Amino acid sequence: MTHSSYPSLRLRRTRSSQWSRAMVAETTLSPANLIWPLFVTEGVDLEEPIATLPGVSRWSVDNIVARAREAADLGIPCVALFPNTPAHLRSERGEEATNANNLMCRATRAISEAVPNIGILTDVALDPYTAHGHDGVVDAQGRVLNDETMAILVEQALVLARAGANIIAPSDMMDGRVGAIRTALEAEGFHDVQIMAYAAKYASAFYGPFRDAVGSGGLLKGDKRGYQMNPANAEEALREVALDLAEGADTVMVKPGLPYLDIIRRVKERFEVPVFAYQVSGEYAMIEAAAAAGAGDRDALVLETLLAFRRAGCSGVLTYHAAHAARLLNA
Ligand code: PBG
Q: In Å, how far are 281, 288, 297 from 293, measured between CA atoms?
């Protein structure tokens, strides 16, 4: 006689008290699983709220250092920096991206000097620097040129590494850029600078508030479907990940997050490497809007979505809720 079904077996038994739920929990979430994206702006002692990202601001370099210190104190291991480049420094080819004294490099240097125990992740792509809002150099037909863009991205990665970036995160989706950046980093002796590849980055409707934050939203001509992935595709994501790993990526990212948990799971199962998700600006804004409308409890929504990324196989999550979530987890 077996006891494999009701009433011998009651799955509610292990759920019946908090100590028991904790004992059988399959997934954990801690501040160490969070990366905090931060927006940098010119000026001193500035905080500029971003209308489409309620609760998120752009900070001047001095205040960014304070945010990095706050992150370290909360147990968040890494911050991700994004610049709001002043309009007069944006150009067709995005030259400001390779200026060793640009806003990103100054913020990176300031944090690495003041908060040496936190990781600094820097995006590599030209969209915060181009006058047209695309991630690369555009030809007369409006197409983003792969190889010409890649050469600039390599220079961008090098100025960021020299400024003290610990993780280079190419978000541009040009073919071959991870290998080219790895080769250049090795040649300059940056053996310990990691590459986190935005390996499976989709042409998504969820990036709108981010583009407002970096000031490229109103500028963008057309869309990014010629280089970012089609949301219909999953096999292609596995090919992207395989290539980026072969080219030397240390870790890979899937982006956006919640609508793409299936991709995260497949990447994790296939490759057994550290996988990260970017819970992007539109996802953040949806949670905030739901909470503001009384459709859900903000703290519970935040923690449940972050736990879901961990369950799907993520080592960590880039999230604008990082500091808030860490406070909840540390309480
Ligand atoms: C730039 C970049 C984008 C995001 C991160 N890096 C926007 C885009 O590709 O248009 C989006 C992040 C977010 O929405 O939070 N290449």
A: 18, 9, 10
Any idea which fold 28-330 has?
TIM Barrel (3.20.20)
The CA distance from 45 to 47, in Å, is 7
Distance from Cα 88 to the centre of ligand 1, integer Å: 21
- Number of C-beta neighbours around residue 315 at 10 A: 16
Atom of ligand 1 nearest to the CA of 206: 14
Which atom of ligand 1 is closest in space to residue 125's alpha carbon? 16
Give the angle 290-292-293 at the CA atoms, nearest 5°.
Answer: 65
What's this model's pTM, rounded to 2 decimal places? 0.97
CA distance 149 to 136: 5
Ligand 1 center from residue 159 Cα (angstroms): 20
H-run or E-run covering 197: strand 194-201
Q: What is the pLDDT of residues 102-152, one digit of tens each?
A: 999 999 999 999 999 999 999 999 999 999 999 999 999 999 999 999 999
Task: Give the model's pLDDT for residue 1.
Answer: 55
272's torsion region: left (phi>0), alpha (psi -120 to 50) or beta? left
